[in-house]
Amino acid sequence: MKKTHIIITSLVTVIILLSFIQMGISNFLSTDGIALASMQDKIGLLEKQNMEISEKVYSLSSLTTIASCAATLGFVDARSEVVLANPLPLALKQ
Fold first, then answer.
1. What is the 3-state secondary structure (H, E, C) of the chain?
2. Tens of pLDDT, residues 14-40
3. Alpha carbon 8 to its chain's center
4. Residues 40 and 46 sit within 8 Å (Cβ to Cβ)
């Protein structure tokens, strides 16, 4: 009789202890879920900003934009061609 009383008491104690552990873990995970949602919102915002910056880089690095900026700064196309009539020898024979 005494053994069964000790076993039942220890089982009840273990069940109560495990219940408190489960409540603690659930509470910890629920606050992590809030932090996770906040981080996902920040990731979405940063991805949007990254796309906007990439579009700006692509538009600014396009040849049309570069050509118009060069024209604004006074650069002109070099139209004269330089041609060598007699090519120089590459190596001297010895």
1. CHHHHHHHHHHHHHHHHHHHHHHHHHHHHHHHHHHHHHHHHHHHHHHHHHHHHHHHHHHHCCHHHHHHHHHHHCCCCCCCCCCCCCCCCCCCCC
2. 999 999 999 988 888 777 778 888 999
3. 55
4. no
Instruction: Using alpha carbons, list the distances in angstroms from residue 41 to 31, 35, 38.
Output: 16, 10, 5
Give the whole-angstrom CA distance, residue 13 versus residue 5.
12
Contacting residues for 59 by C-beta, under 8 A, at least 6 apart: 65
The Cα 40–Cα 9 span in angstroms is 46
Is the pLDDT reported for residue 88 higher than 70? no
Q: What angle do CA 87, 92, 94 make, to 5 degrees?
A: 155
Locate 35 and state its tokens: 């932090």
- Say what the pTM is: 0.48
